[in-house]
């Protein structure tokens, strides 16, 4: 919030996910995860959750020759963001689905996550 009382939205509104009534902006989580020394690239999306509406899912590309686990990522996040923002699901990938022009396809990522994680669409 600015001194004048204005709020600014970080990231795109349509990328926002809602988890149990909390608004979560993926860009905020991505910026923190980019600080991890073993993470080359990251994208955060929302996936369906029966109880909370959506859960945070991070797609992570690890730097060449490095190893990283779910536990490592969650431990890294613990002191850097609110508990509800820590990715519930973490998928380690080689790359992200992209359009022919190179734009990341978050809708395809969401569909793939649902399949890979065995989740049900709402």
Automatic annotation (TrEMBL):
GO terms for molecular function: medium-chain fatty acid-CoA ligase activity. One of its GO terms (biological process) is fatty acid metabolic process. Residues 28-103 form the AMP-binding enzyme C-terminal domain. It holds the Pfam family AMP-binding_C. The keyword Cytoplasm does not apply. SUPFAM superfamilies: Acetyl-CoA synthetase-like. Gene3D superfamilies: 3.30.300.30. It comes from the Eukaryota. Keywords: Ligase. Belongs to the ATP-dependent AMP-binding enzyme family. This is AMP-binding enzyme C-terminal domain-containing protein. It comes from Lymnaea stagnalis.
